[in-house]
Amino acid sequence: MTRTARKRTGRRPGNTESRQLILDAARAKFATHGYEGASIRSIAQEAGVDTALIHHFFTSKDGLFSAAVHDAVHPEQLVAAVVGKRRALRGLGERMVRAIVGLWEGEVSRNQMSSIMRSAVSHEVAAQLLRRFFTEEVALPVARSTGKSDPEVRAALVTSQLVGLAMTRYIVQVHPIDKLPADELVACIAPTIQRYLTGALPVSFRG
């Protein structure tokens, strides 16, 4: 019997457990079939739940994908760790890069992030959802914490750099970036992120 076809036995899972089962199944399906190929029905079968429960928790596949990203990244915790209680500007770029690289360096979190990134590469809707999530829930809160002008522009610049880094190191695996020790990678990228977050921008982007 395949994993997809298996039936769960024992006590019925509670709401929290069912929700997590759905998220895990969604990431697995997104990783193997892409955003478009992963249907709500197949995700429900993988999780051992009814499709109605997915709609109850997440409303739509877009909502499920966004929730899967949120569950993998934990943006509130990440932003809090990057900004810090003292909101020190010094070292902000390094903390930001180290936090993002840390998401990819752990075995479990790397698998989660890879499934999300591969879906974004293969489908424009998933790409838009990922860009919006990372910009609005991670980069923008960090940029706003600095009190500097044009936080939206700064957040977009940070997103472009860090999503590009994830793509080249972990998905496309461009050499030698894919083989650099994490500390060396952070040292290479952190000054650029620091400049995006706290440095002077070359022009005014105020609309």
From TrEMBL:
Molecular function via GO: DNA-binding transcription factor activity; transcription cis-regulatory region binding
Keywords attached to this entry: DNA-binding
Every HTH tetR-type domain range: 16-76
The keyword Transcription regulation is assigned to this record: no
Highest taxon, organism lineage: Bacteria
DNA-binding region: 39-58
Protein name in the entry: TetR family regulator
